[in-house]
Specification:
about 120 residues; binds zinc ion; about 45% helix; 3 helices; about 10% strand; single chain; alpha+beta
């Protein structure tokens, strides 16, 4: 992908950055795109989102934990996975709307985005 064929939108919230493939068609649709955010929960030990608590650092941490602590940790990991799945749905909706040419930088859209983000927020 050449840079001049990509439009970058930084929403300035939650680290959301959208890349849209130019040109737009006659209906204002882009050729596709991608989205990143900092909303996802990541492994507190290695920093990777898709770590299933099986990285070297986490294994080391787990060595000295008792059963109860591990139960709590497993519950937390499950909550994080559920939350990340919700975030995936959330960000893919934003991306598909942006690709369709919807103005995702409008104040109304950004306000709606905040409301939605709060309602799926990680309360664990
Ligand atoms: Zn890890």
């Amino acid at each position: 992908m050449k840079n001049e064929n990509i439009k970058t939108i930084n929403l300035g919230a939650h680290g959301i950055v959208i890349h849209l493939v130019l040109p737009q068609d006659e209906n204002g649709r882009y050729g596709g795109g991608s989205i990143v955010s900092n909303l996802e929960e990541v492994c507190e030990h290695c920093g990777h989102r898709d770590c299933d608590f099986d990285c070297e650092e986490a294994m080391e941490w787990a060595q000295d934990r008792d059963h109860e602590e591990m139960e709590r940790k497993n519950e937390e990991l499950k909550n994080n996975r559920d939350y990340n799945n919700r975030i995936d749905g959330f960000t893919s909706l934003i991306l598909s709307q942006a690709v369709m040419g919807i103005d995702v930088e409008s104040p109304a859209y950004l306000e709606a985005l905040e409301t939605a983000e709060q309602s799926i927020g990680n309360n664990s």
